[in-house]
Amino acid sequence: MSTPVVLVAGLHGTARTATVQRLLAKHPGALAVHHDLSEVASGRVRRSVRDATRVLDTADVQLAHGCITCTVREDLLPQLVRLAAGATLLVVDLWDSVEPRSVAEAVDCDEARQVLRLTAVLTALDAEAMPDDITRGERLAEVGKAAAGGDQRHLAEVLVRQLEYPTGLVLHGGDRDDRQLSRAVLSHLAPVTPVHAVSSLPPVTGAAVCTRALAERVDPATAQLPCDLQTDEIVTAVWRSRRPLHPARLFEAVDELVTESVRSRGRFWLATRPGQLLAWDAVAGIVSVEDAGPWLAALPEAAWELAAPARRLAAALDWDPERGDRVQHLVFTGPDLDPARFRALLDSCLLTEAEEQAGQDAWTRYDDPFAPILTTKENA
Length: 380
Fold this sequence. Notes:
alpha/beta, Rossmann fold, Hypothetical Protein Yjia, Chain: A,domain 2, 2 domains, six-stranded antiparallel beta sheet, about 35% helix
């Protein structure tokens, strides 16, 4: 029988350590594997294996291809396979700034599936720090949490990846008010993900989780986006439209949209790019716009069978006789956010009726400030 594997991620080391220790204590015979990246700038990665009471083994790991993600994945899987026969549960204690998705997908692979069974992906959060950290625009290197010398990621960017992907979230530390605020924030940012205390962790030795389904929850074309919600001063506002966006007007509005919200994401389309599903992703004032592939409406029907079932379902739910699955669907969350004002601003970025009637030949001549960004990413 395969051995269950749990990933525990989180920028907050104290919360992550408490969660790992609780799992080890609850499951006699469990082992935890951890890669310490604190000295990765000098080329050193330290791997340790421990049980509930002591460290059993340590070793230095060669930095593969100069890539820390590759190093963790390529060293971790053989170690888990080696340890599986002698463990009741394997806990992967991920370094602070490691995002869980790539590791989860590496563990959930065909070659190891007979030996390992990924049963949970947890992110541990410090209840006192999390609400502030989600608003911080510093790079990881500025706060001493970079995973490699050239790591340019931002703290808040990594934090949202850690809390929007997993099967469960674990709160640790802080007082009652901190925990209440954290739960309120998480109800907006990850509304379908269960939130636990360290003292009441969920069962982690059952059936395997499906990493494909976890990915579909966050991938732009199929993402399960939050709904309209207000919790005290925290507001989430959803904006939807069928009409195309004018690229220049949207570009002018970007700064206002991302600086007056803490987190926003979704899918949209520009009049100048009717075939492209574009992904909007912003946190703490840092915004990314990327090409997420074609809308199904832009493809011949014969190609639809090549799309994943979740992709076809999402398109069917959004289908419009005129636009197909093309839709503007953006979600904004922030303190005291004014939904009516945000929606009015976004509505003003849509094509006017006269512009729509002019047709696609006219749209292609619009100034498109997004072109340099999208072209660079397409060529990268």
